[in-house]
Amino acid sequence: MTAPNRRAFLSDVGRGMLAAGLGASLANDLGFSTAFAAQGSDSIPLGEYTSLVELMRNTPAEKLQPVLAAKIAKGETNLKQLIAAGALANAVTFGGCDYVGFHTAMAMLPALEMSGQLPSGRQPLPVLKVLYRNSQQIQNVGGASQTTLHALDALEAVEHAAEGDVGEQIRDACRQVNVDLGENLLATVGDSPLKAFNALQPAMQDDLNVHRFVFAHRTYGLVGLLGKEYSYSLLRQCVRFCANHEQMRIDHDRPESPIRALVPKLLDQYKLAGKKVGKRDPGDAAVDELSRAIYQLPRDQAAEAAAAAIADGIDPEVVGEAISLASNLYVLRQGTDKWRTHGDSAGVHSSDATNAWRNMARVAESRHAISGLIVAAYHAGIQSAPFQTPAYPTDAHRALVKVSDAPGLLAETEDAIRHNDQGRAAAAIQIYGDRGYAVQPVFDLMLKFAVSEDGRLHGEKYYHTVREEYATIRPAFRWRQVVGLARVTTSAYGYNREDKHGFRAAGYEDACKLLGVEA
Question: Domain check: are 65 and 128 in the same one?
């Protein structure tokens, strides 16, 4: 049997099995009788998720949602399995190289964690919302006919095994836009997800793009969800992302990123290569000063400030705090001339990127953690010049709030959100925090809107970023993150991905009807 015929045969078998599982009537209604992917022996291993992945890749979003809701109700699947299958369907289809696709992949784990924070009847909503987006984009690029990731030829991978630092070799392969070489080199690392993740760090740190940072962090998290047998299939997408980004740089005749020269220079200047990191905490005032320096200084000087702090024995976790606070300043200080603070805004992008770097630094080898935080500080200067406007909320914003009790302030915040009044929402939440009220009711309120609104592909990530940063930043400054979330949530209310007002997130209201809960 020739290879093409073998693939066609196996594809037919897969079609028959899935159609039988769904029932002939439903399979025909969903269109399975006429169009399936060529899922032959060369496809990546899908294991126990095969039928769910095929269902997601072959079904339009509006038809998929009732099927998934029914499966949940019958106990045939659970939210963790759905996210796992969604991640594999995304990887097979896009391979890390589709804008909406990789944004959707980055939202999957946050959506799953958001589900656990909701009452039982509403728990499927964030997952169904993200899978709706996933299915929508899969269909937009051709459905199951679009297959990007195929199984690796193990013999070819062995041939590419080489002595030396495999991480640097992967980075160089990405610079050469040699995807096959990069993927084969990654395959030689072995079956340890952490070793593979460390091998990807030089490529991750080789250019500036918020998505390459966050995508790497979230993809590694998905490996933790699915298990190490899926490690290579998921992490190889990072190679493709970096190579694709390099190709775009070449196509647009842009210069190489300055960090390619700056990071080695700073590592040498501050003798950070092989350095054992310190554990010193210089105190609140010093952390605040470092954060403002990173926010105000030119990018190269911001990176140097981080390098100097690490060289001075300051705990990388503390340096990460300062970078996170600098990123938060973009959310709080964005001026009224730029009305949209949600989505791909400077503050959300910077905050999500810094959160990714802080998480990666916690698990990566020390050398990668040090260089990664230097890159994070450089990236935190995401604007050519920082915003010069006062941080939200101003005194004028505070004057708009006439209540001071906890329920009244939460009600004031919700009203401000529904009227897109960013200043009033920020003021109400700041006053709430100043009075020492509990943070959980605020997160509950923000979660409601993080689920119901589109957020321009960033809502789930940023909500999760703020939750994490609140938990890991010292008490003196952590409320700034909550105020930032209030402002971004208010900006997002009612807007779709095209910035048209009067819309909920795609699929949200239908999902509410299917679950029998209030929209």
Answer: yes
DSSP, residue by residue, 79-108:
HHHHHHHHHHHHHHHHTT--HHHHHHHHHH
419 and 466 fall within a common domain: yes
Q: Which amino acid makes up residue 77?
A: T
Q: DSSP states of 37-89 as a string?
A: ----TTBPP-GGGHHHHHHHHHS-HHHHHHHHHHHHHHTS--HHHHHHHHHHH
Q: Could you tell me the two tokens for 79?
A: 């939210």
Identify whether 30 is part of a domain: no
HSE of 272, CA atoms in CB hemisphere, 13 A:
30
Tokens encoding 423: 């200043």
Give the C-alpha separation, 454 to 264, whole Å. Answer: 40
Instruction: Identify the CA nearest to 216 among candidates 229, 226, 228, 202.
Output: 202
Q: Which residues contact 80 (CB under 8 A, 6 or more apart)?
A: 112, 225
CA dihedral 212, 214, 217, 220 (to 10 degrees): -70
Same-domain pairing of 411 and 509: yes
Residue 493 forms part of a structural domain = yes
Question: Among candidates 58, 116, 122, 120, which has minimal Cα distance to 85?
Answer: 58
Contact status, residue 386 vs residue 296, Cβ threshold 8 Å: yes
Question: 134 by DSSP, 3-state: which?
Answer: helix
Cis omega (within 30 of 0) for bond into 393: yes
User: Does pTM top 0.85 for this prediction?
Assistant: yes
- Residues whose CB falls within 8 Å of the CB of residue 513, separated by 6 or more in sequence, listed in order: 519
Angle between helix axes 316-333 and 459-472 (nearest 10 degrees) is 130
Any residues with CB less than 8 A from the CB of 449 and at least 6 apart, and which? 417, 489, 492, 493
Residue located via tokens 């109400």: 428
Residues 45, 97 within the same domain? yes
Query: Quick one: angle between helices 231-251 and 210-226, nearest 10?
Result: 170
Residue 135 identity (one-letter amino acid)? S
Q: What are phi and psi of 150, to 5 degrees?
A: -125, 165
Nearest to 506 by CA among 140, 189, 75, 32: 140
The DSSP letter of residue 314 is: B
Number of domains in the chain: 4
SS3 of residue 477 by DSSP: coil
Close Cβ partners of 517 (under 8 Å, ≥ 6 residues apart) = 121, 122, 125
- Residues 296 and 387: beta-carbon distance below 8 Å: no
* Contact assessment for residue 242 and residue 206, using Cβ atoms and an 8 Å cutoff: yes
Residues of the chain where predicted confidence (pLDDT) is lower than 50: 1-41
Asked whether residue 100 falls in the same domain as residue 175, the answer is no
- What domain range is 282 assigned to? 274-380
